[in-house]
Amino acid sequence: MVHDFRDAVFDSVLQIVAKNPRTIVLTNDMGAMGLSRIQELYPQQVLNVGISEQNMMSVAAGMALSGYVVFVYGIASHITTRCYEQLKLDVCALKVPVILLGMGPGLSYGMDGPTHHATHDCALLQTLSGMTIYLPADGVAIKAMVEQAYQSRTPAYIRIDKDPYEPIYAPNEHDFSLGLETIQQGESLCVVTNGIMLGRVREAARELREEGIEVALVDLYRMNPCNESRLWEACRNAQAIVTVEEHGRTGGIGSLVGRLLSERGHAIPFCGLSLGDEMLFGSASRTWAFGQYGLEKESLKNTFRHMALLPTTV
Amino acid sequence: MNVQALEYKAAELRLHILRTALKAGKGHVPPAFSWVEIGVALFYGGHLNLRSHDPKWENRDRFILSKGHGCLTLYAMLADLGFFPKTELDNFCGPGSLLAGHPDTQIPGVEGVSGSLGHGLGLSAGLALGAKLHSYPWKVVTVMGDGECQEGSVWEAAMFASHHQLHNLVAIIDRNGLGATNYTEKNVALEPLVSKWKAFGWEVVSINGHSFEELDKVLGCFRQRQSLKPLMILAQTVKGKGLSFMEASVDWHHRIPKGEEVEEAIRQLMGAISSSGSVLTMEMAHGA
Questions:
Q1: φ, ψ for residue B231 (rounded to 5)?
Q2: DSSP string spanning B19-40?
Q3: What would the pLDDT profile of B56-91 be if each residue is shown by its tens digit?
Q4: Which of B28, B5, B80, B7 is nearest to B269 (CA)?
Q5: At what angle are helices B120-133 and B152-163 packed, to 10 degrees?
Q6: Shortest CA gap A61–chain B (Å)
Q7: pLDDT tens-digit readout, A88-110
Q8: Judging by DSSP bridges, how do beta strands A241-244 and A270-273 pair with one another?
Q9: B141 FRET partner, CA 20 to 30 A, in A84, A112, A175, A183?
């Protein structure tokens, strides 16, 4: 069975559309099977606004002011960076229920060139007051997050990965209200990650267990607002911390955890793995880029091993 | 419509606007003056359904000032109509005060955050589409700048509004001919503006934006329009209208009169008030 984030998202959106006629999905000419299904059943509640991201966000805000809950579906990089000011002034300043469904975060579209790389989306959107940012790791999480964003009636951004996911959570296991979850305990090292990286990191950690290295794994599925006190509790007793993210170095999990440790005066071995900050040209597939930036499984294991075996005092 | 009363109100508001800017030592006076008659026709001429004591009344018309730098006119009207105390005008741009140099939604009566151009038409189109889909009775009116039409997002919204037949949307362009530093036609030419908007599927009416008769004629029938097109009112105006030395000048976009200019400005604005039917003393004009 293929575990597809899009199917999970649009299943949830369909349920919401069905129960609330004042819900609409806008798209900048971006298709998906699940979206087509909604359009067939509820043609009045799906609107292709054309290839016009700036206008799409202003229209979304206006429709929200008129009483709608608005989902906006498009490629993650296009519905965040292209229309950042509309998100700032029309969506966040007005505190309207506009929920961004960002397809293809990180290097999901790595082979399509830098126009399609969503590696700065979380950094940018974290600066917007009132914008909740979700990075779901599996279908259970993303369904819960769609519903949570809908119920909150405030701006939100949900990253939707293009690749299939590894199931992490059992249905109804969590309500995803706390912002993060320690999905496994471990004494040797604490790794903070989210999104599709969580499954990959879990696999690396599983193999290290055979070497006697026990990795605690934290799913930081909500980056804004970050539940800092809970994140601190999850990290404070670790011997070392590694952050793993498919995002630029600035404004991601590494920045967030690094600041948290620094503000609390907590001296501890720390390593942030990311895609760096340079723009990637050419065909930056995930396989290639993860190799370049130490994000593929063997490199992750090497980093985890190295960090777990460091002396405990620095 | 009582043209004399509206002319008196416009003259009075211009003096309030100037006083507000003088007290703060900042503000955009000419782009405020160019749409005073447009604002007065809308807010005092019976063309907008609003309740100052209930700014969020659900059936109010939605008014979006897309050219946020013209906010001094909006502030003066909202204060005069009782949306907030007139004393707030004295705190314009003061530390932590309600009224900043561009409007935001903390201010009673303000529906959008503007000042960066090219947002208001899209926001208005979204409001109008939401209202149309649910047959809400209210209308959406937005006042835009002409220089604002150099923003690409304006044309995205223009296409969208006509495609969705947003006949409940009225946009008014304050065609004062000037951007911040130069004439629009010297920066990046906008003309032929009428045919551009027509080509984008709008009904376009070009009027003298300082004539209450012409404003009333077009605003008076927009609720009963049969056309499915959104309505564009190209209001031909004069930037800095009301002050001879400011009118159509490239030097005044955000310059504040000083010294003798202040006396001359007050003399001219008081003269306009007198000729429209009232008498003010110099002390009253200075706000004493």
A1: -105, 125
A2: HHHHHHT---HHHHHTTHHHHH
A3: 999 999 999 999 999 999 999 999 999 999 999 999
A4: B7
A5: 20
A6: 6
A7: 999 999 999 999 999 999 999 99
A8: parallel
A9: A84
Which chain B residues are closer than 8 Å to A52 by Cβ? 153, 156, 159-160
Contacts of B56 (CB under 8 A, 6+ apart): none
Radius of gyration, alpha carbons of chain B? 18
| C-alpha of B84 from chain center | 18
Q: Between chains, do B156 and A50 touch, taking CB under 8 Å as contact?
A: yes
- Chain A residues whose CB is inside 8 A of the B133 CB are 44
In the predicted model, is pLDDT for residue B156 greater than 70?
yes
Separation of alpha carbons A12 and A21, rounded Å:
15
The CATH class of the A181-307 domain is alpha beta
Amino acid identity, position B55: P
Q: Are B204 and B234 in contact (CB under 8 A)?
A: yes
Predicted pLDDT of residue A125: 98
- Topology given in CATH for the domain delimited by A5-160: Rossmann fold (3.40.50)
Structure tokens at A163: 């690749």
List the domain boundaries for chain A: 5-160, 181-307
CA B144 from chain center: how many Å?
Answer: 8
Chain B residues with CB-CB distance to A65 below 8 A: 62, 111, 123, 126-127, 130
Predicted pLDDT at A314: 47
* Strand-pair partners of A191: A217, A242
Q: Are A227 and A257 in contact (CB under 8 A)?
A: no
Tell me what pLDDT residue B253 has: 87
DSSP string, A283-313: ---HHHHHHHTT-SHHHHHHHHHHHHTS-S-
pLDDT class for A311, splitting at 50, 70, 90? confident
Q: Is B127 exposed, middle or buried (0-12, 13-18, 19+ CB in 10 A)?
A: buried
Inter-chain contact A93–B152, Cβ cutoff 8 Å? no
Signed CA dihedral, B74, B80, B81, B82: sign only: positive
What is the model's pLDDT at position A132?
98
Say if residues A87 and B116 touch (Cβ distance below 8 Å): no
- Asked if A5-160 and A181-307 have one fold, the answer is yes
**What structural domains does chain B harbor?**
3-286 (3.40.50.970)
Contact A192, A183 (CB under 8 A): no
Model ipTM value: 0.93
| Closest residue in chain B to residue A23, using alpha carbons only | B130
CB B98 within 8 A of CB B88: yes
pLDDT over 70 at B285, yes or no: no
Q: d(Cα B223, Cα A68) in Å, to the nearest integer?
A: 24
